[in-house]
């Protein structure tokens, strides 16, 4: 039976009066909340967040929203033409601050590596691998040993940063496997408008992971956090803000994800669920194992 860690969240009121509040007014929300948001995002990230609040909300909407990576059919993603998978770390693959994959997710992680190959699966974290916090790559190297996949080295925190930098990292491996990937890399360069268009980004945060993936041209999958008990108050506050705006954008403004060339929905499903999600039968089989 699938298990989930106990979670606790802070929420912004769901009262009907919220729908009568202007987005501009919400941008000028309490300084304490923005202050806490600032502790979990960099200055450029806050600026982008405020921009999204009034204009580009579609960047915060994922192409798929699901419970966990267990729901994702990695082999269908690979067959559709995607060439790499990038994961956030905390509450996507691991419990916050832990180095090992959360036990219920290990089988799905194994499937992902089988579908794409270890060298085309990596972690893109706002801690390990980030030059600001891990300049010598010590944390990244240790995490690579624990997870069995690479950890991207990068200069800026999500949602800032360059998708091109990530693409260069994925294509920088000098091992023998790189030679076997030349045709794939050439195809990416010749047939896509973005070096990341055939990448899948998976994370639990709308305004960091999803925004970063979408603005870089990736296919984005948002998973629900499975253990927020270890998170800081700053991140809890940021999640509350995310929840408010996502609810507003989706329900009142009917905002949808930025179109992606490889996105595909089930034609016989009224809710238009993604073909890249496992069927109910597959989920039941997995949960009963």
Automatic annotation (TrEMBL):
It comes from Bathycoccus prasinos. GO terms for molecular function: phosphatidylglycerophosphatase activity. Residues 1-14 have a biased composition (Low complexity). Residues 1-23, 154-194, 253-289 are annotated as: Disordered. This is Phosphatidylglycerophosphatase GEP4, mitochondrial. Residues 175-186 have a biased composition (Basic and acidic residues). InterPro entries: HAD-like_sf, HAD_sf, PGP_Pase, PGPP1/Gep4.
């Amino acid at each position: 039976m699938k298990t989930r860690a106990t979670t606790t969240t802070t929420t912004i009121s769901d009262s009907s009066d919220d729908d009568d509040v202007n987005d501009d007014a919400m941008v000028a929300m309490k300084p304490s909340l923005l202050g806490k948001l600032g502790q979990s995002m960099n200055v450029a990230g806050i600026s982008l967040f405020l921009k999204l609040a009034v204009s580009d909300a579609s960047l915060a909407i994922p192409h798929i929203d699901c419970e966990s990576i267990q729901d994702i059919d990695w082999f269908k993603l690979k067959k559709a033409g995607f060439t790499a998978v990038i994961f956030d770390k905390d509450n996507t693959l691991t419990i916050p601050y832990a180095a090992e994959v959360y036990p219920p997710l290990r089988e799905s992680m194994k499937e992902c590596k089988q579908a794409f190959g270890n060298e085309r699966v990596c972690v893109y974290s706002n801690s390990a691998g980030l030059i600001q916090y891990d300049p010598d790559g010590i944390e990244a190297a240790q995490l690579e040993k624990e997870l069995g996949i690479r950890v991207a080295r990068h200069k800026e925190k999500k949602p800032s940063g360059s998708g091109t930098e990530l693409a260069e990292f994925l294509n920088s491996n000098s091992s023998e496997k790189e030679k076997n990937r030349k045709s794939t890399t050439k195809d990416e360069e010749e047939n896509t408008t973005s070096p990341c268009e055939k990448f899948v980004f998976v994370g639990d945060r709308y305004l960091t992971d999803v925004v970063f993936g979408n603005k870089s041209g990736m296919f984005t999958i948002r998973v629900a956090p499975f253990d927020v008990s270890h998170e800081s108050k700053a991140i809890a506050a940021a999640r509350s803000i995310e929840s408010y705006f996502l609810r507003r954008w989706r329900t009142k403004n009917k905002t949808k994800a930025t179109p992606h060339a490889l996105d595909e929905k089930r034609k016989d499903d009224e809710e238009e669920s993604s073909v890249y999600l496992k069927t109910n039968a597959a989920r039941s089989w997995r949960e009963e194992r």
